[in-house]
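Practice problem: predict the structure.
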Amino acid sequence: MGSFKTGSTNISQVRAFRDIGWQVIEYDFMERLKILGSLESRDLEIVDLCNFEMPDLTFISKGAGISVSCIRSMNKISSTILWYMDPIDDNWDENLHQRMVNVDLVACALSQPYHEAKKLNPNSFFIHEGFDELVDFPVTQPKKWDVSFIGQPKGIRAVYQAALGFKVIQGAYGTDHAKVVAASKINLNFVVNNSGCSDRVYKVLAAGGFLLTEDWPGRSADFRDRQDLVVFHNLADLNQKIRWYLNAQEEREMIAGNGLTSVQRFSRQRFARRINKLYLSASEGA
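Answer:
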């Protein structure tokens, strides 16, 4: 249960679930809301669909707008997992908290939301969002930019961009994302509210890119600074490291190669298998 518009990770998640043997019924709860015109009608349709299909597990991707009463009705039919992939931002509100409280399991892609979710629901887990093996892979592409950032230039990113003038690319999805990574000598990543590692890190590394990133809690357990990627700590440090690594092609390529190897542990299929393991463990303990 998620969004299936272009660029949504829910699309590759569904494919990964099918790859590991699940039978999946896709339900775009945001699109159905537009069509049905009210939250009440959409929620009734969700419950009717669950009653008709009788799923073993209902996987809810964030679930914005889905009522607690709807989740409680789903709980009577199947196990429920709420997947939350965002940092602690405007989405982190009382409605989300109540959804987390009422599902059977919560899975978070970022470490800080995971620790906060654990306070709401003891059955909360941290799961790497990872990369999509079918689109995030190294491609041969001429270098067009010295330094680039793929994403929205907002918050601290806009401050850094104004100071350093690096290229900002928006709307790069699928294999286009990998091509942009390949076209940049240095790829940047910023961490929102110290929340943790977004899927940008996995996507850049899986495409063979050299990554300069802010640090995040738990990073050292997954990636090594100056071996898989390079961490910067402030504007002056970033500026200095950009200058250094633009002139150190051999070292850049070595680090990018190590990052490509290390990130293979975090494929989308690994994500699906971890969700499956959580579901099976919860079912056995029920």
